[in-house]
Each structure stands twice: as C-alpha cells, then as structure tokens.
C-alpha cells in the first residue's frame, strides 16, 4: 500500500479529499437533524404553553346556562344560533363579566320562568316583563326596555257570511225573505196559469211555461223591467207598472237589510281597543303578562305557546284578537304582510323588560350594574335603534 502511495501521490490526495467530503456531509446531516430537533421542541413547547394559556383563560370564565324564549325581534333563532336585541345586550354584558354562555331554549314563557325559579338555568333572557307576581319568585335586573300591550286583529274587511246570516235571522229579515220567496213562487204559478189560458204563444208544456213565468217574475223583481206580453191594453199596463213597483221595493228592501246587518255585525265584532274585548275571546301567550292581566280584568282568554299558533287560531276564527307586547305584534305584522293582520288601539298596561335570575343569585347585581353602565353610555339606545329605528 505504501509502495502504491509512494509511486502514485495523486491517489493519496484523492482519497484524502473523498474522506474529507464524507466527513463534511456527515457533519451537515448531523447539524440539520439537530436543527430540526430544536425546532420541533420549540414548537411543541409553544403549543403546550398556548394550550395552558387557553385552559387558564377558560378556567377564568364562569359558565352559565341561559334560558331563552324565541320572541322576535328580542330573541330569534336560526340554525341553532340566537340573536336579537335581548341576546345582543346579554352578550355585551356577559363579555364584560367574563361569562361563558350556553343557551337553553324553552317553548313558552311559563316553563322558562319555572326553570329560572328552580335554578335549572342561571338566567332568563328574552322580552320578559317585570311583574309583581314574578318579582316574588325571581330576581330581576334593572329594566332595559319600556313598552306595553297592544291588540292584533285581522285587517278591516267585510263581515263573514255566517255572521251576516245570523244577523239577518236575529233581526227577523230571514222570515221576511221566506214570505217574499213564497210570493215569487205563487206569482210564478198564477202567471203560468193565466198565460196558458190567454196567451196563444205561451209554451204548452208545464216545464217550459213555469220557467218562462219564473224568469218574468225575477226580471221584474231584480231589474224592474216587465218582459211579458201585454194582453189587456191600458189595464195591462197599469198592472205591469204595479208589479214593477213591487219588484223595485223588494230589491230595495233586500239590499238595505243586508247592508244594515253587515254594518251592525262589523261594528259588533270589530275590535279597535281594550274596551271592545269584553265578551270576546283573546289569544295570549302561555305564562305571559298579557294572560295574567286579561284574566285579572275578566276578559276571556285562550293561551298559545307562541305567536304563530295564536295567529293561526285568529285566522280560523277561534279567537277574535291577540293581546301581547306591542313590539312583538308590530314586528310580526311588519315581516308578515301576507298574513293580512293589523295592530290596533293605543298602548295599554305599560310594562318593562328585564333579565331574570333565581332568587339570591349572585349575578343580579353585577349584571344590573353593567346594564346601568350601558344605558348611561347610550349602548342600549343604540341597540333599540338598530332593531326598531325611530319607532317608539
């Protein structure tokens, strides 16, 4: 080997270069591996630190179960997500207090109030009216919305046919109509007998003859025009004129009687204010302040879980009106013009909305303080304008 190296020095240089290259490559690979290892350790440490920070943040936030009742525009639901004025206000307050919210939906106000009273939920968030009865079992915040009750009815229109028939019967007009029908039938028979004897051109078959006479009688009764042939000169003219006067009188009587009854029925059944509700059945929401108020003043009610069910009953004629919070009714009429409903009368039985908690809840005071702060800063008014504009 030494002999070869001594005689071929270029081979020795080449081997040394090869060995040096291999060593350099191994060193580079080692450095690359160490670099990747350090980066991995640093990344893992960063992720762990972030996870610990997030966990610490979650541990620092108090989780609360909030009961909600869907009542647009205060609480609306779409695909499991809630929004509305009440929800927006609660989210602002919860963010300031470091509360993590989990919403629990209820189908009616009665169940929501009961769940809040028993502590099944930590808070009730909707357009929940503050009442003396509820204040005895719930802890309320500072009111954040002032409103009252109004009445929803079908849009003004003509009275229903059944109501008109009932009104005609009660007024005695149906009996008069029966006598008129008897006179028309009798006149048809008498004219048929008369014309069969004196008019050679009159149909010989009874069926055609009665039809012709009935047409003549109804023509006079409805249009005042005599269409039959005059067989007796001036005397026939006089009788035709008398018959025409009778027909005009019949039409005038029927028209005036039906019109007067329809007007009376519309006035009797029409609801324009609270004073029109006695003697009628009004739809209310189960467990609502309107239900308590109407029962207190002796007005008949039928309770429904929500506004949709109440409107269906109103359209079907099972109730005469719906009494509920004014903003809820006005919002429904605005977004459902095809329903042909209207809100009538002025605001009555003023009330206020507030968030509710179980008695002795430690959330009442801090939430109230945040609401007061938001009212003083104008944030609550900004929310109201966002959902209701300049409407009062």
Topology:
Blueprint: H1 2-7, H2 9-60, E1 62-69, E2 76-78, E3 81-83, H3 85-97, E4 99-106, H4 109-117, E5 123-125, H5 132-135, E6 138-140, E7 145-154, H6 161-170, H7 173-198, H8 206-223, H9 233-269, E8 281-285, H10 289-296, E9 300-304, H11 307-315, E10 321-325, H12 326-335, E11 341-353, E12 356-358, H13 364-377, H14 379-388
Parallel strand pairs: 1-4, 1-5, 8-9, 8-10
Antiparallel strand pairs: 2-3, 6-12, 7-10, 7-11
Structure description:
The chain is of the alpha/beta class and 392 residues long. The protein folds into 3 domains: 58 residues; 122 residues, Periplasmic binding protein-like II (D-Maltodextrin-Binding Protein, domain 2); 98 residues, Helix Hairpins (Orthogonal Bundle). It is built from 14 helices and 12 strands. The strands form 4 sheets. Strands 9-8-10-7-11 form a 5-stranded mixed β-sheet, sandwiched between helices. It has a 3-stranded parallel β-sheet with strand order 4-1-5, with helices on both faces. Helix 3 packs across helix 13, helix 7 packs across helix 8 and helix 8 packs across helix 9. The longest helix has 52 residues. The chain is rod-shaped and about 110 Å long. The protein starts with a helix and ends with a helix. The relative contact order is 0.14.
């Amino acid at each position: 080997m030494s002999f070869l190296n001594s005689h071929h020095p270029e081979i020795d240089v080449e081997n040394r270069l090869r060995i040096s290259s291999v060593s350099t490559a191994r060193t580079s690979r080692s450095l690359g591996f160490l670099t990747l290892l350090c980066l991995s350790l640093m990344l893992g440490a960063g992720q762990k630190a972030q996870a610990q920070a997030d966990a610490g943040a979650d541990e620092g936030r108090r989780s609360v179960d909030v009961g909600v009742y869907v009542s647009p525009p205060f609480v609306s639901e779409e695909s499991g997500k809630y929004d509305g004025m009440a929800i927006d206000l609660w989210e602002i307050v919860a963010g300031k207090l470091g509360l993590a919210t989990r919403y629990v939906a209820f189908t009616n106000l009665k169940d929501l109030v009961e769940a809040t009273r028993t502590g099944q939920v930590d808070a009730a968030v909707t357009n929940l009216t503050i009442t003396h009865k509820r204040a005895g079992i719930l802890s309320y915040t500072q009111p954040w919305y002032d409103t009252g009750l109004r009445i929803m009815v079908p849009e003004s229109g003509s009275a229903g046919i059944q109501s008109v028939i009932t009104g005609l019967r009660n007024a005695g007009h149906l009996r008069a109509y029966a006598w008129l029908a008897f006179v028309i039938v009798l006149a048809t028979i008498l004219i048929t007998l008369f014309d069969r004897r004196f008019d050679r051109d009159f149909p010989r078959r009874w069926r055609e003859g009665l039809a012709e006479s009935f047409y003549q009688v109804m023509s006079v009764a409805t249009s005042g025009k005599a269409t039959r042939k005059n067989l007796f000169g001036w005397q026939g003219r006089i009788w035709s004129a008398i018959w025409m006067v009778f027909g005009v009188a019949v039409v005038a009587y029927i028209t005036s009687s039906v019109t007067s009854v329809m007007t009376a029925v519309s006035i009797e059944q029409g609801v324009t204010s609270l004073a029109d509700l006695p003697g009628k059945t009004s739809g209310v929401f189960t467990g609502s302040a309107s239900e308590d108020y109407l029962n207190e003043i002796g007005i008949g009610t039928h309770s429904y879980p929500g506004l949709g069910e109440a409107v269906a009953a109103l359209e079907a004629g099972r109730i005469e009106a719906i009494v509920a919070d004014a903003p809820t009714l006005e919002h429904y009429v605005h977004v459902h013009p095809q329903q042909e409903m209207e809100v009538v009368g002025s605001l009555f039985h003023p009330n206020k909305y507030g968030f509710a908690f179980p008695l002795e809840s430690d959330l009442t005071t801090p939430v109230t303080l945040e609401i007061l702060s938001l009212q003083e800063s104008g944030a609550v008014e900004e929310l109201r304008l966002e959902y209701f504009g300049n409407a009062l």
